[in-house]
Design goal:
The protein is mostly helical. The chain is built from five helices and no strands. The structure holds magnesium ion (MG).
């Protein structure tokens, strides 16, 4: 159950832009610069594992905790953006890159299949 003050805090963040979120992620980084990339990659793996765990319990136990799944998805996003920031990019840039790539694949009829360079 989400507390009322948490709901209000979440609602106050709803209008954040992708760039503001990227800046927020950067402000939360506490790792030494020399360890940053590896810590962010390990954090991403950890959070993807936690997301898998929530879905596994959903399949195994028949429980469905949408709030927990969405929270873990947010944790995955956090580390994804931390890595993008490390390489001088940001969420807005990732959105544009991904949409361009997928639109290009769709236009060329290669959405299905495999390989990075379709
Ligand atoms: Mg988590």
């Amino acid at each position: 159950m989400i507390a009322r003050e948490d709901i209000e805090a979440i609602n106050n963040l709803i209008d954040s832009t992708p760039t503001e979120y990227s800046d927020f992620v950067e402000s939360m980084i506490v790792t030494k610069p020399e360890d940053r990339l590896m810590e962010n990659l390990l954090g991403l793996c950890e959070e993807v594992g936690e997301l898998h765990g929530k879905v596994k319990r959903m399949l195994r136990d028949g429980t469905f905790d949408e709030e927990a799944i969405l929270n873990e998805s947010g944790d995955v996003l956090f580390y994804n953006i931390a890595i993008a920031n490390y390489f001088g990019s940001n969420l807005q840039n990732l959105i544009q890159r991904n949409m361009y790539k997928l639109n290009s694949r769709a236009a060329r009829g290669v959405i299905k299949g495999s390989g990075d360079n379709r």
